[in-house]
Amino acid sequence: MKKISLLLFYFIISFAKAQDRPITTGVPFLQVAADARAAGLGDQGVATSADVFSQQWNPAKYAFSIDKQGFSVSYTPYLTDLVNDISLSQVTYYNKINERSAFAGSVRYFSIGDIELRNDATDPANTVKPSEYAIDGSYSLKLSEMFSMAVAARFISSNLGITTEGQSLSAARSFAFDVAGFYQSEEFAYRDFNGRWRAGFNFQNLGPKINYDLSGITDGSGSNFLPANLRIGGGFDFILDDYNKVAVGLEFTKLLVPTQQIPVPVDLNNDGDTTDAGETNGVQEANNEYNSIGWVPGIFKSFGDAPGGFSEELKEITYSLSGEYTYQDSFSMRAGYYHQSPEKGAVQFFSLGAGFKYNVVKVDVSYLFSASKVKNPLENTLRFSLTFNFGEKYEEY
After folding, report:
1. SS3 state of residue 300
2. Per the structure, how many domains does the chain have?
3. For residue 333, how far is the Cα from the chain centroid?
4. Alpha-carbon 214 to chain mean position
5. What is the three-class DSSP state of 67?
6. Are residues 114 and 89 located together in one domain of the fold?
7. 388 and 275 in one domain?
8. How far is CA 143 from CA 140, 170, 200, 387, 396, in A?
9. Do 199 and 333 fall into the same domain?
10. pTM of this prediction exceeds 0.90
């Protein structure tokens, strides 16, 4: 019970400080950067150069990969200031079929560790292991020499229910798909350097709600929207010479999930008190109306349903800035900044990262510094990724 109490206390305090009208979804682990390269760039990856980790950010980049095949393993400790057995792990593999197309797959696993349940101190412990995972695959194809698109499908399972005596809860499951595009220009010669432009977009996690309660609820209150979002970004590579390159990037993300409306109780008897019997019905009606929104209408509603109007819609867009220096394709240094409005979650942080490559093996690490008054669950956390690239090389135009 100690771990449950700590986790509940942590999240209650965080949201009490941060939230004004944040948008909450099910399976939020899908939004956490699982690889150290993107983490070091401020959770940015939709328009960065192609790598093994493109599956989470923009699978269309695989069509521009130089290596024929790649395999990676990533590990991210979570809430390290509170516990030591919560983590996010990911395994990714891609194979470039030919110069124009590639396929890839990945498994992402979020473990909440062991939780011991007791009615009192003398009872034997009932140990449970809540966890979530996602399995996905993608196919990317170059539609021209400089533009590619990709589709991805994803199966999601969330087993967070705690089984008690006489009750058995099944895992919540859903599926989702992505539609992505990536542009990479030719290398242009400027006065003192060469350069290349990059741009990308990804409609991610589009799919039915995930239902955490299958006990006959029909009003939708047991289901949650998936973290559907639109990522769009761009970048530029400063190719200084044959050994030195600096890449900069800018990325925006918008959740494609409706904003929870503000329910207003009605003072029916004009006594100045809105807590009398029947006067809070408006709150329940507002909640029921929100729960009844389907995932497809929710995508379109998400662009214009913020109670504060257009100014609040803009606050629902997060952005990140990044810079990456690479020497001889064997050593990289990275930095990034991520910003979310204080009224929509207040996730703000700086990140640093580095990458080291020897032959076919590459190691990436990253570190996060919170820039918000709200404590980040990944603050002061080192993330690791190990990559293997092998097979023939494709020439970059």
Report:
1. helix
2. 2
3. 23
4. 26
5. strand
6. yes
7. no
8. 10, 43, 14, 28, 16
9. yes
10. no
Q: Is 38 exposed, middle or buried (0-12, 13-18, 19+ CB in 10 A)?
A: buried
Give yes or no: residues 313 and 273 share one domain.
no
Q: What is the CATH number of the domain that holds 140?
A: 2.40.160.60
**The two structure tokens encoding residue 374:** 């709200």
Rounded to an integer, what distance in angstroms lies between the CA atom of residue 216 and that of residue 395?
57
Task: Give the number of residues written for the chain.
Answer: 397
Quote the DSSP letter at residue 268. Answer: T
- Decide which of 267, 292, 317 is a domain's last residue: 292
Say if residues 203 and 179 touch (Cβ distance below 8 Å).
Answer: yes
Question: What would you measure as the largest C-alpha separation in the chain, in angstroms?
Answer: 79
List the structure tokens of 45: 């990856």
Q: CB 178: neighbour CB atoms within 10 A?
A: 25
Assess whether 245 and 360 both reside in one domain.
Answer: yes
Which residue segment(s) compose the domain that 270 sits in?
259-292
Q: Indicate the SS3 state at residue 255.
A: strand
Please, which residues have CB within 8 angstroms of residue 139's CB and are 6 or more apart in sequence? 59, 101, 102, 103, 150, 151, 152
Segment 64-113, tens digit of pLDDT? 999 999 999 999 988 777 777 889 999 999 999 999 999 999 999 999 87
Q: Could you read off the pLDDT of 263-311 as tens digits, one per residue?
A: 655 555 566 555 555 555 555 566 677 888 899 999 999 998 888 888 8
How many whole angstroms separate alpha carbon 58 and alpha carbon 50?
9
Each residue's pLDDT tens digit, 163-193: 555 555 678 899 999 999 999 999 999 988 9
Measure the N-to-C terminal CA separation of the chain; round to a whole number of Å. 58
User: Which pLDDT belongs to residue 168?
Assistant: 57
